[in-house]
Every structure is written in C-alpha cells, then in structure tokens.
Design brief:
This protein has one domain. It is mainly α and about 475 residues long. It is globular, with a radius of gyration of 21 Å. Helices cover about 80% and strands about 0% of the residues. It is built from 17 helices and no strands.
Length: about 475
Amino acid sequence: MPEPNKNGLNMLEGSIVDKLFIFAIPLALTTFFQQLLNTADVLISGKYIGTNAMAAIGNNTPIVSLIVSLFVGLSIGANVVIARHIGSRQFGRIKMSISTAILTAIISGLSVMLLAEFLVDTSLDAMGVPSEVREMTETYLRFFLLGMPGISLYNFAAAIIRSRGDTRTPLYSLLIASVLNLILDFLAVQVFGMGIDGIAGATSIANYANAFYLLHSLSTTKDILHVHIYELRQVGIDYREIRRMIAIGLPAGIQGMVFSVSNLIIQSAINSLGADAMAASAAGFSLEINVYTFMNAFGQATTTFVSQNFGAHNLPRCFRITKLALIVETLVTLGLSALTLIFSRELLMLFSTDERVIELATIRLWYIVAPYILNGSIEILSGALRGYGISMPPAIVTLICVCGVRIIWVYTVFAADPTYENLMITYGISWAFTTALLAVIYIYFKRRLADGRHLGINQHYPDSEKA
C-alpha cells in the first residue's frame, strides 16, 4: 500500500482555520486561472476584434457555465465519496472510486459535447441573441464545445486530488493552461489572422492540456491516489460507487445549473438592452467571478473537510469546521468585494475604453459584488450539507429561491421598467431568500445529525471491506 496521504492535509486532527486557508487559497487561485481562460478570451477579443466579439463571448458565458456546473457538481460527488473513504480509512475502495470517476468523466464529457452541439441553435434562439452578434456567438460556442471532454476530465481529476487535501497540483495545472491559452489566443488573432474561432479553439486546446497534466499526476503519485491509466479498463466502473457519486454530485450539479439557467434568463433580458449592455456584463462578470472564486473555494473546502471528518465519525469537528468556514468566508469576501468596488474603473478599463460600457459594468459590479456576502453563505452551508451526503435539499432551495425569484422578477418588475439597474438588483434579492431558507435547512439537519437520526447517503462500509 502506498503512503496514506503524502501530499495532502491532515483534516482529522489539529487546527482548522489555517488548514482551511491552506486548502482554499490554492483552490481559489486555481478557479481564478480557470476563469482566466475565459477572461483572456474576452480581453483579446475586446482589444483586437471589437465590442461585438466581446459581446458574443459574453452571450456564451451562461451556456458554458450551465454545462460546466454539471461537471463540477458531479465531480463534487467523487470528491465526497473518496474523501469519506480516506476519513474512514477504507483504502481498498479508493482505486475503484478513482477508476469510476475518471471513466465517468470521459463518458459524460463526450455525451455532453455531442448533445450541446446539437442544441446550439435552440439555445441561442432561447436567449434572443441579436443578429449583429449571432454568427460570432455561434462560432465561438461550437469551437468551445469541442473542449468539453477536457473540461469534464479536469474537474473530476481535480476533485480526486483535492479529496486528500492537495489543492496545489490542480493550481499548477491551471497556471500552465492559462498561460498556454493566452499565448494561443494572441497567436491565433495576431499571427494567424483568425477571428473568434481561433480564440475558442485555443481555449479548447488549453483545456485538454489541463486535463492530461492531472492524469499524469495521478499516474505518478506515490500515495493512496496512485493509479495507472492502463488499469482503468481493467478496474472499470463500480456501480455502487457511481450511484453514491451521482446521489451527491447530481443535485450539486443541478444546484449550479439552476444558477446558470437563471443567468440565461437574465442574459436574454440583457440582450434586449443592446450591445453595450452585453459587453458591459461580460466585462463585469470577468471581475466579479474572481471574488466568487474565493467563496467557492471555502465552500469546497468545507465539503472536503466535513466529508473526511464525517467518515471518521467526528460530528463535533464537522460542526466546528462549518462555523469557522462561515466566519472566514465572510471576512475574505468583505475584503475582496471592497477592493473590487474601489478599483472598479481602473480594472474595467482593461477590457474597454468605451465610457458607456464602463458605466454599465460599474453598475453591475455594485449590484452584484456589494451583496456577495450572501452568496458566500450559500456556498458554505451547501458545502457542509454535501459533506454529510445531504445534497438534494440545497438544490431544491436554489431552484425555488434563485431561479424562481429571478424568473418572476424578469417577467414582472423588469418587464414593467426595463432598465439595466432594475435587472441587476434581482441578484441580491434572490441570494437573500436563498440564504435565509438554506440556514433553516442546515439547522434542521444539524439537529438530526446530532441526534443520530440522519447518517447521510454514503453509509460506512463494514470493517470486512477495509484494506
């Protein structure tokens, strides 16, 4: 048996706050560089192609987020299952779980790519993409979708590696991929004279390079996550493992997709306001998402820490992890939000010098980044519940409070007064409803867990299965 956890953190003992930071900061930077793949596309297109190209990429953001949310959610299921095995020291199940996760990533990536390519026209029609940016929007999306298997494989491989507490390796991978993408974007536009198709193709190549780096890492590591790629066919898919992963990961994916569906509806409303509004939203999103990366990182840290400790039957530590994660996330989000708002104009000018675009993007940032602390609480509470294997309630709450509120708002309040400000305010309102209801759900399940009335979806294996 390889070393139990050579490259990871000891999440089961000792201090918590410092380990949350050790886990979350590289993860946040990883997500930052993952977002940089898209930011580079927006930046290069805005500088060298024009506002319409920038708007075209902005139009694709909700669709891409919708698909990626599914992969991220499913990969969370793999993270929870493997972390649970580590916490309960069921080392004999880990190789089977890894094989199941990687093969699932490949199959789901190819399936989603083919289905999404088939639905491109339908999706763009549903968003009401204006004719002046329609062709570029479709071109970018079709080339970008070719990289879906790479995105899926990266997310699953990263989730496997993070289950042991190692968030540095995925960071190194994203750093390399981001630099590669930026170089390829520039070469495609400035050297080879390509347009938005070259930008999207460069991003797809970077996504595949990203995934293969992590697969190489798993095949060369000397600890409990070691697996040879040629063994995958021999080990295959374990249907008990995949059921556990789906039971936890699919609701998490649906929760992320609900956010994206609501954003698709908002994007459709943004499109009705013109190219300046579309470009402004693309620029604003490229900044605000960098604050979100830290919130999401602490949420994923909470999931992994809680999952390992739940596997070790240490509920008091699970509860303490969630409490401290909420405090840390609040402080970090407040600081980053303040910096983003203070320097908003200087940052936005990196994307465009058009005063109207900067004005609208600034409005977006104030309406979204200022109440971001509510969204951070959603990440922590949802992450804690997933760590226990309780994944469906957060998804249902999100469906009702996020998607429901935003749909009603767009077709009532915004329809009556279609201004950019009136559209952006719906973000904070939907987060407030979601946070309140999710807090009630968390307290309810916390009491059930403390009373021993709910053990989560992934029950502990009998001792006879331990290696």
